[in-house]
Amino acid sequence: MKSVSVLVFALVLAVVYGQNKYTNKYDNVDVDTILKNERVLTNYIKCMMEEGPCTAEGRELKKTLPDALASGCTKCNTKQKETAEKVMKHLMSRRPKDWERLTKKYDPQGNFKKRYEEHLEKERKAA
């Protein structure tokens, strides 16, 4: 399994606010609608890959994502973590090529990937 976009849209919901937490300014963005709309989702991916224009949320996400990956999303609130996981699972299962590209760009060493796979394994055992 790959990793990165956990935060792709969760962090669309999280702009850096101070040093301890990301802002909840975007927590009410309807991520389900974004994930269901191929055009909108593709635009966010292009933004993240620097292949197209970005919305304000996309620009903030690009700035925040490296820190969130490095810290394991420790500055994310519960809603942001849940949203991030939803986005990651969606991209891994429905857009694996985009997931791979995002992973290579934002997690080239695979550090986040390893942590996320450990998290998924714990989840499976608990279920």
UniProtKB/TrEMBL annotation:
Keywords: Signal. Pfam families: OS-D. Residues 1-18 form the signal peptide. PANTHER family: CHEMOSENSORY PROTEIN-RELATED (PTHR11257), GEO07322P1 (PTHR11257:SF13). Gene3D superfamilies: Insect odorant-binding protein A10/Ejaculatory bulb-specific protein 3. It comes from Diabrotica balteata (Banded cucumber beetle). InterPro entries: A10/PebIII, OS_D_A10/PebIII_sf. This is Uncharacterized protein.
